[in-house]
Specification:
This protein has 10 helices and 10 strands. With about 300 residues, it is an alpha/beta fold. The protein has a domain of about 210 residues: 3-Layer(aba) Sandwich (Rossmann fold). The strands form 2 sheets. Strands 1, 2, 3, 4, 5, 6, 7 and 8 form an 8-stranded mixed β-sheet that branches. The chain has a two-stranded antiparallel ribbon with strand order 9-10. β1, α2 and β2 form a beta-alpha-beta unit. α1 runs parallel beside α2 and α1 crosses α7.
Length: about 300
């Protein structure tokens, strides 16, 4: 795993919480698991997404892991403050999971793959912990999907510093567009990826505040030290860039960004790809001991 590009400051913890709250409906309106499901959240960080996951699935048994012990402790505190009792936390590396094969019904990964040098290896390792027929949900952003107005020259430079710094740290801020091939290459089936776009203008004051001012701009400001050390910008250019980004939150400004949500199934069968894709699974003869299988992805979630 690479070093976390945004750091572990209190300000970053606040930014993560604001981001989770602001994007809850957009990203998680359909993150629902059956009663009693065993769910692994891989890379929980400080628990910003954990709170939402547990709140939307109070009858699920959630195990949340992170490689950082400090983050785990903060996540425990956040969950306890919310009165949530269906989550257990473990310090664990996503590449060295302490679970037996097939331990979980569902796996949830949010804003994690972008920080890994080997995201495909992580997905394959997570698949081992998933039961046959279980599902994985992966959510990632893509900094290349960002557009804003007014588009100041220095604002663009500052924004691109995010991707450049992360690339220097062996991460990938453009990974959202790669979710489909990554899940396919990791031999998941029924892969579906959907864009979830955030568009902000002054008619949406809650997004101006929660997304532009409390999520996006603090995220950019978080790489200032690395960007200046790597001589990507001069400090006076940087300050002008941040000032220009603030103009996107003014009445005449706009901001647009796209997240990607991918979902897929672990199959216990080996069969050639269907020419029309895996949107529907059909079999005329027994497959894994089941006859006349005809299940959509959404139906699998209900099993």
């Amino acid at each position: 795993m690479t070093e976390y590009v945004h750091g572990y400051s209190e300000r970053e913890a606040l930014r993560l919480a604001e981001q989770a709250d602001t994007l809850e409906e957009l990203l998680h309106y359909d993150t629902i698991y059956p009663r009693g499901a065993k769910v692994l959240e891989a890379g929980c960080g400080i628990g910003a997404q954990t709170v939402i996951l547990a709140k939307k699935n109070p009858s699920a048994e959630i195990t949340s892991i992170d490689v950082s012990l400090d983050s785990i402790e903060k996540a425990r505190e956040n969950v306890k403050m919310k009165g949530i009792e269906n989550v257990r936390f473990l310090q664990a590396d996503i590449f060295y999971l302490p679970f037996e094969e097939g331990s979980f019904d569902h796996i949830f990964v949010c804003f994690v793959l972008e920080h890994l040098q080997n995201p495909s290896g992580a997905l394959k390792n997570l698949k081992n912990a998933l039961k046959p027929g279980g599902t994985i949900t992966v959510i990632e952003g893509d900094h290349g999907s960002c557009y804003f107005y007014p588009e100041g020259e220095n604002a663009l430079k500052a924004w691109h510093c995010l991707s450049r710094v992360q690339a220097q740290m062996k991460g990938n801020s453009l990974i959202g567009r790669q979710l489909y091939p990554l899940l396919q290459e990791s031999e998941f089936r029924g892969v579906k990826v959907e864009p979830r776009m955030v568009y902000v203008d002054s008619s949406k004051p809650e997004l101006v505040d929660g997304f532009i001012l409390k999520t996006i701009i603090p995220m950019v400001e978080g790489v200032k030290e690395q960007a200046l050390e790597m001589q990507m910008m001069e400090e006076n250019e940087w300050e002008k860039g941040i000032e220009q980004l603030h103009k996107t939150a003014k009445p005449s400004g706009t901001f647009c960004y796209t997240f990607f949500k991918g979902r897929a199934i672990k199959s216990n069968c080996v069969r050639p790809p269907h020419p029309k894709g895996w949107g529907m699974l059909r079999a005329a003869r027994p497959v894994c001991g089941i006859r006349n299988l005809q299940l959509s992805f959404d139906q699998v979630l209900l099993i």
